[in-house]
Amino acid sequence: MTAFWWTVAIAACVGLYFAVRARATGRGDSDVSSDVSAEIAQRADEQNRWAQRGDPRGVYGVEGAELMGRVDPAPDIGAELGRPADFPRTAAVAYTAADLDTLLAEKLPCWRWAAFASVLVQRRAAVQSRLRDAELGYSAPSGERADSGAQVGRFVVDRMDEVLVLVNPWRASC
After folding, report:
1. Which of 1, 24, 108, 125 has the fewest CB within 10 Å, making it most exposed?
2. What pLDDT score was predicted for residue 119?
3. CA pair distance 161, 28, nearest whole angstrom
């Protein structure tokens, strides 16, 4: 009875391998004409040259470089609004950790709100590049990429080996 299930499992794995391989190799390479491919390659080379020179167009493209100035404007916080000279000094937003420590030590009026806003501003500054990338629609490649049937096959076999490592201790206890 167990031989039957092993046969079914092996047949399912072989079928999965060929399905994944067919999916990976049939990505529509015939849909792209040689003119379009040549244009894409020319643009990629141009953007690579820009990136090597440090030009932001090399990473985000021409439209993205124009948008970068709009996404991250310089804040105009703390500008004096014509307050009278006898107006009491109040806490202000701190943009660095050292300024935040000073803010917490002085405890000027409204220090709790200033500390709250300061933490938000500092945390947003830490992820500003990711926010800009999201607004521009740019994302860094992640994960593995299989460009050929052999790589897909290696990937599937590696995952099957991982499953066997997980299942073997269970089988030994039965």
Report:
1. 1
2. 92
3. 30
